[in-house]
Design brief:
This protein is an alpha/beta fold. The chain has one domain. The protein is 29% helix and 29% strand. It is built from four helices and seven strands. Helix 1 crosses helix 3. It is globular, with a radius of gyration of 14 Å.
């Protein structure tokens, strides 16, 4: 299994409020760089923009415990998208035929494996950061 070893650490905290506060600090640094929609550029997709339109609404659909678990990997997920050139696991979305899902595998400094999922629209070729979650 090929994975990318990220340089950033997992976000610390024991409850959702603590972890969310740190995640928003990371997100606001990204958000400050543009007046329009926040984005990061991906090394794997030849520096194409990855937008955050679906990340926060998708996260709010999860339970509080699951949100906390996923948000801890937010900084690691950003680092992986920006720097990784590892080939992701790619498959067509079963629910919507005009979407492709890319799953990157990464590892934190402590060798904890996690996934980062990116959704790509086939027609517009736009890419969206969907989620990051631990490997179970």
């Amino acid at each position: 299994m090929n994975y990318y070893l990220v340089k950033s650490k997992k976000l610390a905290g024991t409850n959702y409020a603590e972890v969310r506060q740190q995640a928003l600090i990371v997100f606001n640094q990204i958000k400050k760089r543009t007046k329009r929609k926040p984005y990061i550029r991906s090394a794997y997709f030849n520096k194409q923009k990855i937008f955050f339109d679906f990340f926060w609404p998708h996260l709010l659909q999860k339970s509080l415990k699951e949100r906390t678990k996923r948000l801890k990997y937010f900084a690691c997920g950003i680092d992986l998208i920006i720097n990784s050139r590892q080939k992701p696991l790619t498959q067509a979305n079963r629910n919507k035929e005009n979407e492709i899902l890319h799953r990157f595998i990464g590892a934190t400094k402590n060798k904890e494996l996690f996934y980062v999922q990116i959704k790509e629209n086939k027609r517009s070729k736009s890419k969206y950061f969907m989620s990051c979650f631990p490997l179970e």
